[in-house]
Amino acid sequence: MTVSYTTETAIQTRFSGLVTARRESALGFDMPGRIAEIGVDVGDRVAPGDILARLDTRALEANLAAARADARAARASADLAQTTYQRQQTLVDQGHVSRQRLDEAQSSAQAARAQADAADAAAEVLEVQIDLARLDAPYAGVITSRAFDEGAVAPAGQPVLTLVEEEGRELRIGLPAGEAARLETGTLYPVLADGTQYQARVIAVTGIIDRQSRSVTAVLRFEEGAPASGAVARLVLETGLDERGFWAPVTALAEGRRGLWSVYVLSGDGPYTLEPRPVEILHTEEDRVYLRGAVEEGALVLSAGLQRVTPGQGVVPAGQGT
């Protein structure tokens, strides 16, 4: 490679984070029961309100029928007690019965109404329990796990299915405080995952430094297309570096004594010999480094294969050999 200096350059810094679903729910029943039906399996996509699973509700439905019958009987008794009270009130007005009889009739009517209300409430409780014996999808997503099959007894609160939202995947990433401060909410940034570049918009920066990681959490939401949930992705931040230097591939670096670095310069007018020159690394990226050191503008530098050569060895640039 030929050395070409610049007084400033754009550098990229990459920070890794985990791609997560915006929402993920472990779905279970609020009460224990035997599973009568599971209508989905792992990988199935569901829409909001889709019925995913049901418990056996035959006993509850029988109890509900009995409770409704009790409620009807209690309501009939309450109606009769109210009619009796009204008749007693008429008789009191006419002076045929005592005030005591009227008070007793009123008390009986109130008690009958209370019993009827209690019977209605008991029926409503059973209706709610039957509703709770059904799992509905709270939002659109994909089923990622299934813990039970039909016929199994599911404990209350035990996850039966896991639902992961497909839309709105997010990248949660820890950044140094200085880098986090540069992020602008609502701005799109490039994100790399599995060799593909995506665009993600900053939706939140906590601004709080975690005590353990000493980083600030930022949340970005992917726009069109997104890596799979659970994938590792890298946020790419670009800044300017006002330092004179030159770019070289990482493979051009040779590690010297005491941790110093050097590159092999092709010295002479031809034939060339390899001469190590010390350099300082100003910035490192995945496959290239930004350097400065005792290397002249336009110098030829060995870009790869350093493990096969030694200082002072004669070389011929590719394409110039015989």
Automatic annotation (TrEMBL):
GO CC annotations, alphabetized: efflux pump complex
Pfam families attached to this UniProt entry: BSH_RND, HH_MFP_RND
Keyword Ribonucleoprotein assigned: no
GO molecular function, one term: efflux transmembrane transporter activity
Recorded family membership: Belongs to the membrane fusion protein (MFP) (TC 8.A.1) family.
Domain Multidrug resistance protein MdtA-like barrel-sandwich hybrid: 33-162
Regions annotated as coiled coil: 102-129
Keywords: Coiled coil
Domain Multidrug resistance protein MdtA-like alpha-helical hairpin: 64-125
InterPro entries the UniProt entry points to: MdtA-like_BSH, MdtA-like_HH, RND_pump_MFP
Name of the protein this chain belongs to: Efflux RND transporter periplasmic adaptor subunit
